[in-house]
Write a structure and sequence with these properties.
With about 725 residues, the chain is mainly beta. The chain is globular and about 75 Å long.
Length: about 725
């Protein structure tokens, strides 16, 4: 007996409707989760409300799995993600359900906001489905925007990548919702029918300090782990955009250097150009680049014999910087400390050296060209910049070429060449070449190594540098060992070399202990760990040794406390100044210092951090305290005060001194596209006061208007203060 006709007709509608093909989250034969995007008959109104008809047709990606605190368990709150498309855009609709919406944490709405201390949602798009690279788009419950380009599963992370896209969010009675609109021409992908993209989604519920993923990711990693992503199906035949951008700019201002009587006015202009050579290769060019809007450096007190490290902040060099990264696989940092210094002894390529003379003076740049991206299984990076001649000093050409070949499932081998060459002078140059290899096996095992050599006229000695390391990291433990040698004649004008003529051994071990019993007592994790750095000279004599034995206790709210016991040995072969008029003499020094570090719960409106380094120091004693206070009365306003006080008493030579460093940051976000920031600093040892004020209006996507004021003065001299005001306008045209 046949069913009634209405029933047959209804079944036909069910099978033939679009939603029938947009099934709920399914798994592919290889075990990956899959989600299907559906076609939107009309453009989706991106207002944060999921009331467009297409969201009723698209089946949700749901069933998020925790990575932290209960790895492998279902998320405590439901999240649903739907995807749709039209001819020009990919749309993503997100519903983050929450049983206590009044407890949703939002503390920032500025561009490229920091997501660790608030509720967030992230999406990873692996547009080539190579399970290595991709783009990450993030937002919070107020619609803040952050975009990141990742390569090699997060080993190369470029948070300074900027794209044209839109997002709006709103809170609801049962949580919060968000809508993304991402132009296909913003992304890079291979054209054709039936393309499958890698995709994953992550959600952070900050009050619970919980992180969950749609396609599960180990607690040891993040959404950047592209090999753990699921698959996005249902996309139509797509053709990437021409990806051509023209960004002219005008900049003008008046500047008076410290001690000078008059202001010097300046008006100039330039242009930045970007174009897609292929769907995965991009060329960038800049003529008369200007970095007046770059944020000022935070001052540092140097109590070591080494040069200080200041990070790159110039936009042109930050974009796609990861492609030029060479050598090591950085450890994953589960916690971030406001006082954590860089641990690099050698960065083979450090872009901040471009345009920097041998004595530290800034060289104006004519311009340059950069090509970055992928060509099949190869990652490619080429950059050349030319500086201007000035005062009889010749201009310099700075060139770096990088290539990396993917092998196996998630490994690569590569090479790099660096060159600094003055114009018209073949007797003064510096060249460095190197090869590296990075292997990953069993998801947690990493093998890494590099070898490099420099070449400079008149330089003698060993001009080689090399490293080999092995590491294992999962959600329960971390083990790493490495050995690196830097020859006494190794010279790298485009790198950062803390010391040469040494062989360094590094050993690191840590356990990550989590249990229900600890969580019941408010403790998320215990992390006992130990690290050792040992340096020898070419003759095998001990140069330096630092042992770090510690335990870090992390509470459920994300705050943590660490105590470390640190025996140290330093052998000084030539005196160095530790303070004006105070030199550490030649000799061997052994001492023991104690480190106490507390990081507060920075998701709260008021929080703080403190670090104390106490005990012996060279031939005497030290008491160094670093304090940070962070206050966010609303998600639009932030006040951040940092104070460092170092009290040093030495016996050889007999000397004592106190240095104080104060920096105060404040910021106000008028909206997600208009900001005012201030940085005020004072150093007592050199009696220097400085201030940096920056106003930034993003008047249209990737187009900015800046007003920047800088001041610097030495309070104990009669010199006039250095002051400057700069106005910069940029306008991006896309074709």
């Amino acid at each position: 007996m046949f069913p009634p006709r209405p029933v047959i007709f209804g079944c036909f509608l069910l099978v033939s409707s679009p939603s029938a093909f947009a099934q709920a989250t399914i798994s592919s034969p290889d075990g990956r989760k899959q989600v299907v995007a559906v076609s939107a008959a009309s453009p989706v109104v991106v207002d944060g409300a999921l009331d467009d008809g297409v969201w009723q047709l698209a089946a949700p990606a749901s069933g998020f799995i925790q990575a932290d605190p209960l790895e492998g368990q279902p998320a405590s709150e439901d999240t649903e993600v739907r995807l749709a498309y039209d001819a020009d855009y990919l749309y993503i609709g997100v519903h983050c359900r929450d049983t206590t919406p009044s407890a949703i944490v939002v503390n920032e709405i500025r561009k490229d906001f920091a997501g660790r201390d608030q509720d967030t949602f992230e999406v990873l798009l692996d547009t080539f489905s190579d399970r290595r690279n991709g783009f990450v788009f993030s937002t919070n419950a107020r619609g803040a925007k952050a975009d990141t380009q990742i390569a090699n599963e997060g080993r190369d992370v470029n948070p300074n990548w900027d794209a044209v896209w839109w997002v709006q969010a709103r809170t609801t009675a049962d949580g919060w919702t968000a809508e993304f609109r991402i132009p296909f021409k913003t992304l890079r992908f291979e054209a054709g029918d039936g393309r499958t993209w890698g995709v994953n989604f992550a959600r952070r519920i900050r009050r619970k300090n919980e992180v969950s993923y749609w396609s599960p990711v180990s607690r040891a990693y993040s959404i950047y782990r592209a090999s753990a992503a699921g698959s996005l199906l249902g996309l139509p035949s797509l053709r990437p955009g021409r990806n051509i951008r023209l960004k002219p700019f005008m900049v003008g201002g008046a500047v008076r250097a410290v001690g000078e009587p008059k202001f010097r006015g300046d008006l100039s202009g330039g242009v930045d150009f970007k174009a897609g050579i292929t769907p995965s290769l991009t060329v960038d060019a800049t003529i008369n680049p200007d970095f007046a809007q770059a944020e000022a450096d935070e001052q540092q007190v140097n109590l070591t014999q080494f040069s200080l490290f200041f990070p790159e902040k110039r936009e042109f060099f930050l974009e796609n910087a990861g492609i030029f990264y060479f050598g090591d696989i950085p450890r994953n940092q589960r916690q971030t400390s406001r006082f954590r210094p860089p641990e690099e002894d050698l960065l083979l390529f450090f872009s901040r050296r471009i345009g920097l003379g041998s004595s530290g003076e800034q060289e104006p740049l004519y311009g340059g060209v950069r090509v970055t991206g992928r060509a099949g299984a190869f990652g490619v990076g080429l950059m050349t910049m030319q500086s201007e001649a000035d005062g009889g000093r010749p201009g310099n050409n700075y060139t770096v070429a990088r290539v990396r070949r993917d092998i196996f499932k998630s490994s690569d081998i590569g090479a790099i060449v660096l060159s600094r060459q003055p114009s018209g002078d073949s007797r003064d140059f510096n060249r460095v070449a190197g090869i590296d290899a990075n292997f990953r096996f069993f998801r947690s095992l990493s093998l890494n190594g590099f070898a490099s050599r420099s070449d400079s006229p008149g330089v003698t000695g060993n001009q080689n540098a090399a490293k080999a390391s092995v590491g294992w990291e999962d959600s329960q433990k971390r083990l790493q060992a490495s050995i690196m040698t830097i020859g006494d004649g190794f010279k790298d004008d485009l790198g950062f070399v803390r010391r040469s003529g040494v062989t360094r051994q590094f050993y690191d071990g840590a356990l990550f202990w989590q249990s229900a019993a600890l969580r019941g007592r408010g403790i998320r994790q215990l992390q006992p760990h130990a690290r050792t750095w040992i340096y020898h000279d070419p003759d095998g004599a001990l140069v330096s040794r630092t042992v770090h034995i510690a335990n870090q206790t992390t509470w459920n709210n994300g705050s943590y406390f660490e105590y470390a016991f640190e025996p140290r040995t330093e052998t000084i072969s030539k005196p160095f100044l530790i303070s004006p008029g105070v030199a550490i003499p030649v000799g061997r020094y052994d001492w023991i210092q104690h480190l106490l570090l507390y990081e507060g719960d920075h998701s709260r409106p008021f929080s703080g951090s403190i670090r104390a380094t106490l005990g012996d120091f060279w031939s005497g004693r030290q008491n160094t305290y670093q304090l940070s206070l962070l206050y966010r009365p609303t998600y639009k306003v932030v006040f951040d005060l940092g104070v460092q006080v170092s009290k040093i008493a030495l016996q050889a030579p007999v000397a004592s001194f106190t240095t104080t460093l104060v920096n105060f940051r404040s910021g106000y976000s008028f909206s997600s596209s208009m900001f005012l920031d201030a940085l005020v600093q004072y150093r007592s040892d050199v009696r220097q006061f400085s201030a940096n004020l920056r106003f930034n209006l993003i008047h249209r996507p990737l187009s900015d208007f800046f007003i920047v004021y800088n001041e610097s003065q030495f309070t104990e001299t009669m010199q006039t203060a250095g002051r400057g005001v700069v106005v910069k306008y940029t306008q991006m045209f896309s074709f």
